[in-house]
Amino acid sequence: MTELIGLVALLLLGAGYWQLRRQSEFAQAWLARYCRGQSFQLLSVYRYRFVWKKGRILTQFRFEFSHDGLQHNEGKLWLHRLTVLNVELPILREPDSPML
Q1: CA distance 46 to 61
Q2: For labelling, which of 18, 51, 62, 72 has a CA lying 20 to 30 Å from the CA of 1?
């Protein structure tokens, strides 16, 4: 009986890890497509935290991007399973241009 419980626990642990990897790969691909559409350069993506809201687990990813090749900005992506709930971007500042 203990062997069966150990096997089930190992199976659940493996399934949880597989789901986390699947979600990370989805976030990376989705953000790459999003940044390409916004003319941003995606620099990195990482999982930041989990939040329990309204009876469901939300995952927050943070991503670093550049919009002009010089500045470095950080945005937030909220996911529930493989569904994008929200993308938060900082206010982007344009570099000063000399007036002619």
Answers
A1: 6
A2: 18
Sequence letter at residue 21: R
Residue 63 pLDDT exceeds 90: yes
Torsion from C-alpha of 69, 73, 78, 79, nearest 10 degrees: 30
Candidates 11, 68, 19; CA nearest to 47 is: 19
Q: What six digits make up the tokens of 5?
A: 């419980």
Q: Which of 62, 69, 67 has the alpha carbon at shortest distance from 31?
A: 62
Tokens of residue 13, six digits: 């642990």
CB 13 within 8 A of CB 20: no
Q: Which whole-number Å values give the CA distances from 17 to 11, 20, 29, in the listed order?
A: 10, 5, 19
| Integer angstrom CA distances of residue 81 from 25, 38, 55, 74, 89 | 12, 24, 13, 22, 21
Task: Name the region of 71 (left: φ>0; alpha: ψ -120 to 50; beta: rest).
Answer: beta
